[in-house]
Amino acid sequence: MIVQLIFGISQSYALDFPKPLTLDDFITFDQRQAKLGQLLFYDKVLSGNQNISCGTCHHHNFGGADGLSLGIGEGGNGVGTKRTPGIGEDKIKKRIPRNAQALWNLGAKEFEFMFHDGRLSKSDLYGNGYNSPAEEWLPKGLTNLLAAQAMFPVTSQFEMAGNPKENQIAGATHDRIDNVWPIVSKRIRNIPEYGELFVGAFDHIESANDVTMVEIAEALSAFINMEWRSFDSPFDEFIAGNEEALSLSQKRGLDLFYDKANCASCHLGALFTDHDFHALALPPFGPGRTRRFDPVTRDVGRMGETDLLEDAYRFRTPSLRNVTLTAPYGHNGAYATLEGIVKHHLAPLKSLQQWAPKQAGLPDVPWLSKIDFLVHDDAREMARIKSHIDIKPMVLDDHEIEDLIAFLAALEGKSAHKLPLGRPYTVPSKLLVD
Questions:
Q1: Most buried among 48, 92, 219, 221, by the most CB within 10 A?
Q2: Three-state secondary structure call for residue 15
Q3: Domain architecture of the chain: domains with CATH
């Protein structure tokens, strides 16, 4: 199969290798802001009921995610796979519709979209630099896409805001989205330690009264950018010239990735993503996320943002860096293992038909169980999902699948378990840190 070898693989494939990532590929940030962002990231004061933080669903112990197929947001208790849905009036009203995305390398300049459906992107459409769910109400002054992304979890009812009538933030978000941010920033300004930290971290902030949600988002983005950078994997060593960095199995897997399996047609470049949207016919479940006027329990993917039929059921291609640390896989976490998601790519329809609800990592929520898999009873919706597939079936034997998974393991950064700042023990609000 291989005629001429370079580092153990064919010369033609070697030409497709990405250039190594460097610090120049990432947005610049201020370390003072990153350290402030670390505290904000784990501080529940940003949430409506002050019971959940960014770090609850993007925790260090779970590779920057939560280990669940669909997360348990505001109202739940605990972290990761042990998180429970709450009790009494505080119990959750809905599962988070999509899998909590990991944060690896989101500070890279090449990212053009955020969220599974790309509903946040760079744009001059609204005069603030971004096309976002806030449209013209997103404030000006955000310096990068990652900071813009950090504006939105605090506005989401089921993620951080809470339910109507529970708190001021929850009420505000149901009025108009930009009414949330002044309330959040006022909470931060009223904590003296935060005021001092913002004055020290931002040159234009002279007193706590100057702090807005823009600075809060900038600090959060600086932390995420600094903390979850990763480009020191065995693969990085390999493309830099160290032939011994990969095992024989990983080299065979690399060859499959760039040739027979054709993974690199979508997972390309240094971040292993084309930043595009593709329909894979992943098994649907959960409340879904669809257009505002469509109450059906389903997830139409990119079409929910563009309202274009050709975008139906398409989701953003994830980066594969540190993919071994970010299970479960898919926009809804349908597969608990790399083997499962790889086999789905090889035979989407067969995999969809054989998929069973027990494969979903969903904590038991009895009052929501009736709708968890309701979509599978909708014959028309299932037919639509099956008719929208952008990948072609192919055959790999078990040994080839093992080699391909071995190569994916070679994308795990050596420092991925020893991040610069980590999880703080305390935060200025004095609230419990998850």
A1: 219
A2: coil
A3: 5-22+231-409 (1.10.760.10), 26-65+101-227 (1.10.760.10)
Which uninterrupted H or E stretch holds 238? Answer: helix 234-239
DSSP E strand stretches across 280-399? 314-316
Written as tens digits, the pLDDT of the chain (434 aa) is 333 344 445 544 555 789 999 999 999 999 999 999 999 999 999 999 999 999 999 999 999 999 999 999 999 999 999 999 999 988 999 999 999 999 999 999 999 999 999 999 999 999 999 999 999 999 999 999 999 999 999 999 999 999 988 999 999 998 999 999 999 999 999 999 999 999 999 999 999 999 999 999 999 999 999 999 999 999 999 999 999 999 999 999 999 999 999 999 999 999 999 999 999 999 999 999 887 777 678 999 999 999 999 999 999 999 999 999 999 999 999 999 999 999 999 999 999 999 999 999 999 999 999 999 999 999 999 999 999 999 999 999 999 999 999 999 999 999 999 999 999 999 999 999 99
Residue 10 corresponds to which tokens in the numbers above?
């064919």
